[in-house]
Amino acid sequence: MLDREFIIKNRELVEKTCYAKKVKIDFNNLFSLFDKRKNLLNSLNLLREEKNKNSFEVANRRKNGEDVNPLLEKGKEISQKIKKIEDGLSGVEIQEFEILKWIPNILDPEVPTGENSTFKIVKEQGDFSKKGFSYFDILQNSGSVDFKRGTKISASHFPLYIGKAAYLERILINFMLDLHTTKHNYTEVFPPFLVNYDTLFSTGQLPKLEEDMYKLKDDEFFLIPTAEVPVTNIYKDEILTEKSLPIKFVAYSACFRREAGSYGKDTKGLKRLHQFNKVELVRFTKPQDSKKEHQEMLKEAEKVLKLLDLSYRVILLPDYDTSFSSSKTYDIEVWAEGSGEFLEVSSVSNFLDFQARRGKIRFKNKEGKNVFVHTLNGSGLATPRTVIAIIEKYQISDDDFDFPPILKDYIKFGKEIFKEV
User: Helix H segments across 348-382?
Assistant: First the structure.
């Protein structure tokens, strides 16, 4: 959430951000509410000052044995006026909040702007030739993923992994968790997969993306769309110490998304699922460090693909494709050489203090002032499309595939292999 004073001082920038992210806000109404709030606060402060003077005079008259009844009556009148203004102020602030919660995070100046802007390619690495069979044919022919039975058990876009594909999924998750904890110094957490409304509000998924959420019918709980949600909320409503920053967490979770509005896109296979696995990186940093740490997280996510020897590219998302809560996002797209296309496997984002304001996550600096932290997160990585790229690169035939050499070493040697990479 953006600070009220920031919006007042940077109205043009905020309006430009809303336009870019396709969010409609009635700024005239919002600024009218800002003015009402300011006027009510001024009136309230004057009345409180008057009440204090009246109370002081009451004390003096009592001390001198004088009649205080007229002053007591006046004090009651002032208190009634204060109560009335406080109620009015509360109503205005509620109206303000109902608008403020829909305003997205501002964009980093480096983000490409405009409807005609394109994804800026930051890095390309590997061989982007097309060859071999598609992963879908290999999985179908080998029976490693049963899409029909997954649909029977749940619904479409809920795949059933069997045998070798299930093993690859498990090993890949463990490999990434061990890499990030052993090599990149993250602390592993295993969070709840069900969260409440306030938790999703803090990270910015709600209220905007509620139609994409799976919500329990009889309880106010939602299935998480990503581990970012529970992990970022670990310190909700808390004040950290400056010495403790940065804090780095990594978490595996299943992710659940309705993908509302996406029907008809990539309907076959593993490219677009309602349930999938992901390893998530989350950082809490000091404001002056978040830009540097954003680049570090990007390299850590890239490291997974480098170790798996998969070709990929990094792109900087333009303004209209940057999420509601993000200020700047890099996408990592892996090359699927059998299908001949790039597939997104990671988004690495800097949220500045946007999520921290919504979740009231602060730290006490050296001057003793409470300051909002900056939050960052990135997929490190999501498994379905990474699996697609692995199967297509390491295919043996139209019904079998191999594991990358690094995964074979990991299966054999465990964490010891990370001393060498």
Answer: 354-359
What residues have CB less than 8 Å from 402, skipping those under 6 apart?
394, 395, 396
Amino acid 357 reads R
CATH of domain 120-419: 3.30.930.10
Task: Tally Cβ neighbours within 10 Å of residue 170.
Answer: 13
Structure tokens belonging to residue 29: 């109404």
Q: Which helix (H) or strand (E) holds 250?
A: strand 247-256
Q: Class for domain 26-100, per CATH? A: mainly alpha
Residue intervals of the chain classified under CATH 1.10.287.40 are 26-100
pTM of the model as a whole = 0.91
Residue 117 has pLDDT above 80, yes or no: no
Nearest to 380 by CA among 192, 251, 214: 251
β-sheet bridge partners, residue 364: 241, 370
Q: What is the tens place of the pLDDT at every residue in 145-188?
A: 999 999 999 999 999 999 999 999 999 999 999 999 999 999 99
Query: How far is it, in rounded angstroms, from Cα 118 to Cα 321?
Result: 10
